[in-house]
């Protein structure tokens, strides 16, 4: 019953909110896809700051294939995702066996390298990026308005959620949980920590690229500045604010809060990095479990008091 009401609400949402709010929801859905990827890696106790780079790979794969090669939008999603997964597999295979710190360090270098390569190459449009991308189409139906893009994003986000949910409740998900409880503990259970961590990195990179492809199709332009180190830090923020131990719901809450509040407070681009740093510090000090962690703690306390 509750799930049916949620689905009905999501279907009716474009006709409930105004166009500006709908645009924020569209961006929020892209951020949720990214934060889900970070939360997956955190479940395996890996911290990475290169997710914006894989976001860029998906965006640029779609942009290049549509504008230069004349491809339809739909196969570019898969191409971008596979390209990101292959690069992530190569980087992860080299760094994950050497430990989380090595992986973290290389993730910074890879993120910077990919962004600078896209910006420096005239083939990718340089710092001006790629413009005038054609909209997606299914036959004669062309995605032009925000409502169409909302439902496209909702579909892609649904694929993300179903995939992560099924994996979290499978053997591989139990392996990630064991690693999160402790690498030594996971090894004592016979779990191949490197393999499980590598699968998390590859999967999260794939879906980050899918999010990038979606963003590129919606904006119809892409620039390298959209995929820098600050954006990777924001992805971490979404998971942190929502709750790092809530691997599905946390990214939703965190992305929504960190998208809507700055917009409605009219925070400028110059102030946003400062606000981000302040929020990170405050969350770490006062809400280390995130919003959902605090809500859960209060809820459990109220139940304990009620049952005394």
The count of DSSP E runs of length 2 or more, i.e. the number of strands, is 2
Secondary-structure-derived class: mainly alpha
What oligomeric arrangement do these chains adopt? Answer: single chain
- Give the averaged pLDDT, no decimals: 90
Instruction: Identify low-pLDDT runs.
Output: none
Distance from N terminus to C terminus (CA atoms, Å) equals: 31 Å
Shape field: globular
What's the helix count? Answer: 13
Fraction of helical residues:
over 70%
Radius of gyration: 20 Å
Strand content: under 5%
**Major beta sheet summary:** 2 strands, antiparallel
Strand order of the largest sheet: 1-2
Task: Give the topology string: H per helix, E per strand.
Answer: HHHHHEEHHHHHHHH
